[in-house]
């Protein structure tokens, strides 16, 4: 038996112990057959994958078997339940989708030697060598791989309870004006509001707070008072208890801790020990708005009695903390046959081929496919009993999220992200691995089912000449034309009524929301309209002219993602979402938008003989006028705005804004842009290329992005995400660039599927919140002739699918 245990190791501090879940499936210690942890590699295996592991790792066939079961624990009603302090789901301090924990775990252990030896642990320790016992105990007490990752990612999540001590704690001036504040019955001294009231700790004024983005809150009288007096601290009435209260520092612009709050309150006759909490804290308010924001109840169908549905293709996904953008995206993608064929049908192929399953993209994607589509993790619970005492009927996509997000500055954190950006990033990864990794079917690349080509036609009325260019994309991005609203009169009346109520200091929460109703067909029509571009330079040695640009589809993909451009910025640069109700047809016909190519009788424009690599830096006259105006509206000079756009690629407002913020203190910030006099673009260093490639972009794509953004890695990442690769122009540019060292180029070969332009709606992803960087995502999918809602762990038949409020729509090509 000595040889049997020769490969057993005791895990050290640098070893990662995967004892939460199987590396190939979602079996875990609570599963029917428990989890087997290899005592050599410390990888977790479900029962069905133990033999696979032993075959791939000869001599490493000794496992610690963990079987875990839930046991009810009594609830003490006198113990205060944990407070929600984070605007997040499924993380410590955030919303608990499973409610308060009312159980503990009991675990049973044994040593399993494949294929047929079982030794009880610790009951039969006399049959085990000392180092095997030590290994088992070390595995049991070790911090799990999932827990280590959670601790790392939690650092990126906001905590509503962490506040800095105010600098005014010991120096605050308090006026002796004879005021005494009663313990209740307060109202704003400038209006009639009786909640969201703040007591200024310097002069004792009671004033209403700020107005929130959904119309709730106050009338800004407290902040207006500070602007006039510069009295810095205010405490929110109704939040004061013996433990403290919500204190805001206006000049520090944050919620703060006032260690002398009891003394400051006593000046106004308030005894903290006698105060009870009667109003919501700021964290409470933000969380409530997050829960009750107008569209949230509609998107989540909160007012419907949802009927759960179970089985293959109806598996919920646990929210790992702001991971709903991943959950909703992957639920939609794995309803597509291409993804099912690639990763579910051939999952055993990827499992067998993987040398390092935990860090293998195909293996972890196939694992997710198996979890969602097998039906093993979506079983209907028997009637009777408490469901909380049973193992969860959903999957936890922890390994998948860790692998896909590794090295990415956004998807590698626990912050909320844009689902559209994630889908495009994931498609890049799929395509990359289809090109480079072993595959059972070389022709099967699911990412190509979204790819299409667009034809851009430039027409010069002055010369009647035309120029045709081609670009590729994977999403049909269209704007939301507010002026095309079908109910403009009602919207204007609603806005007028709301404004009048606000002037009177009255709340507008109870005012029924009237959203502009905009047909999707109008958005598509606007996309198809000619765009007038002034000051366009056809050739560098000729004067500027006005041209008309139109775009049409060269190819129609099998699946068309439609992304609504609903997110914009206010005049003060704060992000906002257009609150509209879209009129979404179940079927659309885009055949009229098919490109026709060069037509008989058309005269082509002469090509500019300037190298493509210099087209974005040759002149400060070739500016995206729309983006230029947006930047200038923020108060920056025209020269600074031109410089920001030209430096960051001339097509991305966010990248340009970031450049402005970083360089506004530069001495030449407002000086005219000076193009390089050299005939070649600057050398792009290998380190920058590697950094951009680590985010999932190909070498040509990364090189072009860095060239377009003057070798700025951050701006290049933004540019690359918003500019999918274009083979013809891309490789001409890359081949013309000087290299800091020899390198092998990665060639992207895209097969464009084409067919008729008729589509039927099969899924949509909705977003709750003011920006894509916060809030919550929910997916609705048409399955078996009925709409189903996928809201993280919840999978149920949809009663009222909110098609009008979605952000992304997925259309499938119809047969005719």
TrEMBL record:
* Pfam families to which the protein is assigned, alphabetical: UBA, UCH, zf-UBP, zf-UBP_var
Listed GO molecular functions? cysteine-type deubiquitinase activity; zinc ion binding
Name the top EC class: hydrolase
Q: Name one GO cellular component term.
A: cytosol
What InterPro entries does the entry give? Papain-like_cys_pep_sf, Peptidase_C19, Peptidase_C19_UCH, UBA, UBA-like_sf, Ubiquitinyl_hydrolase, UBP13_Znf-UBP_var, USP
Residues of the USP domain: 315-814
Boundaries of each UBA domain copy? 622-663, 683-723
Biological-process GO terms, alphabetical: protein deubiquitination; proteolysis
Keywords from the named record: Hydrolase, Metal-binding, Protease, Repeat, Thiol protease, Ubl conjugation pathway, Zinc, Zinc-finger
Instruction: Name the active site residues.
Output: 324, 776
Which PANTHER family does the entry link to?
Answer: UBIQUITIN CARBOXYL-TERMINAL HYDROLASE (PTHR24006:SF664)
Q: Which family does it belong to?
A: Belongs to the peptidase C19 family.
Name of the protein this chain belongs to: Ubiquitin carboxyl-terminal hydrolase
Originating organism = Adineta steineri
